[in-house]
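Box 3.1 — From sequence to structure: Glutamate 5-kinase
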Amino acid sequence: MAEWHRIVVKVGTSTIVDLEGQINYPVINRLAQTLATLRQGGHEVLLVTSGAIGVALSQMDLDQRPKEIPRQQALAAIGQGYLMSIYHQSFAFYKQIVGQVLLTYDVFDNPGMLANTTNAIETMFSEGVIPIINENDVIAVDELDHQHSFGDNDYLAALVAKEIKADGLIVLSDVDALYTANPNIDENAQPLHQVAEITDTIRLSATGSTSGLGTGGMSTKLRAADLTMQNGSRMALINGNDPANILAVIAGQKIGTLFEGQS
Ligand SMILES: Nc1ncnc2c1ncn2[C@@H]1O[C@H](COP(=O)(O)OP(=O)(O)O)[C@@H](O)[C@H]1O
Ligand SMILES: N[C@@H](CCC(=O)OP(=O)(O)O)C(=O)O
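Predicted structure (token representation):
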């Protein structure tokens, strides 16, 4: 397997916002520092970020995600700008320019729009910019109504990684690894450090989010891992509480869960 040169990192709401619903500025800052270090060391780095709604809940002093789609979309509109301003400031401290890309799933079915998107991303790479992607929640309801599991940032990140031929995808979440069962519910759950195939047993072990803020839980991460492995690439799942762990993954250390097919 090639070195991790072109890397997609996906960060979930559960990392951007803490258990009390507060924006996790120190973690966002360390994430910016880590990604800027990688980029300035010669890697090509792209960030897929969730958290627009999570950030807006904090801004609007709400303690839970509303059920109504228009209210969720309004929160996404409020939070996305703020989320980007936090990233802008955090990356600027490390002298790193970022660019915002908002995508919907139909982009991947439209060759013209897809080419425009990848051309813009390639240009940002060649100019040393880190693209930051989120789903365009205001016009895409698939992620927010919880009805369609395809509309989530885990799978979006896997699709982006596939299109830009990334060497690997690193998913940051609020768990240390994939476990044999949800570790927040089952105290006997055991971590799985290496997965070569998403079997039915593994699929059954994955349930939804228990944080109350993340949407996909482990099921969407497994779909992302499946697509990534089918594509001959690899995905690492690690805890986002210390974004410097990204460097450990790239150095080949056994950390979190590595989803990698047998070659
Ligand atoms: N088998 C499993 N192993 C690990 N976590 C699991 C598993 N099944 C369900 N989960 C849940 O998935 C959550 C992570 O998903 P989510 O909250 O959507 O995070 P994010 O916001 O990072 O995408 C964990 O906190 C845990 O509650
Ligand atoms: N696009 C949404 C992400 C939805 C969400 O919570 O996703 P995740 O935390 O990755 O399970 C947002 O920015 O709020």
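Summary of the box: The pocket of adenosine-5'-diphosphate (ligand 1) is lined by residues 12-15, 50, 173-175, 178-179, 181-184, 205-207, 209-211, 214-218 (CB under 6 Å).
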